[in-house]
Amino acid sequence: MKQDANPAVFVVDDDTSMRQAIGSLIRSVGLRVETFATAHDFLQSKALDVPGCVVLDVRLPGLSGLDLQRELTSRGIMLPIIFITGYGDIPMSVRAMKAGALEFLTKPFRDQDLLDAIQQALEQGRVMRQQKAGAADLRQRFEALTSREREVMRLVVAGLLNKQIASELGISEITVKLHRGQAMKKMGADSLAALVKMAERLGVASSKD
Q1: CA–CA gap between residue 57 and residue 77 (Å, rounded)
Q2: pLDDT digits 0-9 by tens, 47-79
Q3: Which CATH number fits domain 144-202: 2.40.10.10, 3.40.190.10, 1.10.1040.10, 1.10.10.10?
Q4: What is residue 7's three-state secondary structure?
Q5: Three-state secondary-structure class, residue 104
Q6: What does the pLDDT look like over 106-143, one tens digit per residue?
Q7: Backbone phi, then psi, for 12, in 5-degree steps?
Q8: pTM: predicted TM-score of the whole model, two decimal places
């Protein structure tokens, strides 16, 4: 498996023997692993700044696995979660999956099933980080536009013609073309369709603010 900034697998389980067994299994395939007995310990660690995934027991003392899932989501932390439980609680698994969990394994599970889920989670995390980085770069390019270029871009992607934009903004059509060209150049858009897609990702597709 291709490593991405040395991703780690974080195991959060209050059962010492289970935590150690899972940690040993993950290390046996050459992956980096860190283990925690409680959700609180995990949240207090530096794990939140490291790419990877979480193997998380649903039932934990104090903050439960589902509580931790909600906390990570609220903080905008993109760590795919694989839930494990010894109870086979179906309603709980449904809630976990609806909230974005990648997998839900019931103890005892096959080692290979967990390893397969971890590989999938690490790949998902890699894709999510790439998308986040791309979105940040796109936002940076948009913020580099002048206020007039942004106005023109918004009206262009809203479907207005150059002469309509000129009328809307009280400027000449030639000036509109100039701003439009500069906006596309700075955004890295080689076509109107590409500019529209960028605007949609930025949430400015049809705004005339």
Answers
A1: 18
A2: 777 789 999 998 898 999 999 999 998 988 889
A3: 1.10.10.10
A4: coil
A5: strand
A6: 888 899 999 999 999 999 888 877 777 767 788 888 99
A7: -120, 105
A8: 0.64
